[in-house]
Design brief:
disordered N terminus; 286 residues; two-stranded antiparallel ribbon; mainly alpha
């Protein structure tokens, strides 16, 4: 029996992990939709013909409008990188909201440290059922892992075929399996925030460089005071790329750090839960 049980556990673990391979619909569709929306905002909102004193009547994918009427409309003349940056900002906002909802649910209700203390108290009094009730009240990732461990804990109490060390090992394996199902959910999609935090600034600088090249080309072609005025205007427009890229990167970095801190707290609670169960069983059921 001692050799058969780990094999069954490994098979169960393999089957339980299969749902994690299913497609992430949000991660697939959100970036594409955000880029499309970003282009739509740039082309049809900022690039609306009524926002310019000299609109381009031909329209098209990238109309050559001139004379923006407002400061925000000047962002349109930043070039084709602007809709990508707007889309990147929308991607960040989308996954910030998605992660906020997910991590809030994973954190559960109440204080994690207080929850672990209550479970420790019930286990010290050998009241496993009351500890299970606390897990149902917690409703988070720590509660889910603790509940899985407590069910195995309760099963091992009545097991007469294994010694204490084997029972503790079985409880520990059950906790590890439950943890392996919870952690990917917490960390999923954070890669979008970390990637955009690095890329958005570079995209902004790329757009600025393109704008500067275009402005200095006009200066070389035209010369005189009119060219200098256009150069000054072109630099101002090009810097909108930098501002948008830095702003997007800042939001992504801040929220990424907020989420990783929250996940670290949940992970610590899960680790503490596993330690609590194994130590309690080893102490109470020698």
């Amino acid at each position: 029996m001692a050799e058969i049980k780990p094999t069954a556990t490994a098979a169960a673990s393999k089957n339980a992990a299969q749902p994690q391979k299913s497609g992430n619909l949000v991660a697939t569709l959100a970036p594409i939709l955000c880029i499309i929306i970003g282009y739509s905002i740039w082309r049809f909102v900022l690039g609306n013909a009524s926002n310019f004193t000299n609109p381009d009547p031909s329209g098209g994918f990238w109309p050559a409008h001139k004379g923006p009427k407002g400061n925000l409309t000047k962002m349109y003349e930043g070039g084709i990188i602007v809709p990508i940056l707007i889309g990147s900002l929308l991607i960040v906002l989308t996954f910030v909201i998605e992660r906020l909802l997910t991590i809030k649910k994973a954190a559960g209700s109440g204080n994690i440290t207080e929850f672990v203390r209550k479970v420790q108290f019930h286990l010290a009094n050998k009241e496993v059922d009351k500890a299970l009730v606390e897990c149902d009240k917690q409703k988070g990732s720590v509660g889910n892992v603790m509940k899985a461990g407590l069910k195995k804990y309760k099963e091992m109490i009545s097991n007469t075929e294994l010694d204490t060390d084997q029972k503790v090992l079985n409880i520990q394996k059950e906790i590890e399996e439950a943890t392996a199902l919870e952690l990917p959910m917490l960390e999923k999609n954070l890669v979008f925030l970390s990637t955009i935090a690095s890329v958005a600034t570079l995209l902004g600088l790329f757009g600025t460089v393109l704008g500067m090249i275009r402005s200095f080309s006009k200066l070389g072609e035209e010369g005189g005071g009119e060219a200098a005025r256009e150069l000054s205007q072109g630099i101002s427009e090009a810097l909108y790329n930098t501002a948008l890229g830095i702003g997007t990167s800042a939001v992504a970095i801040i929220m990424y750090n907020v989420f990783t801190t929250s996940i670290d707290g949940i992970t610590y609670g899960i680790d503490e839960s596993g330690f609590t169960l194994t130590q309690s069983f080893a102490a109470n059921y020698k």
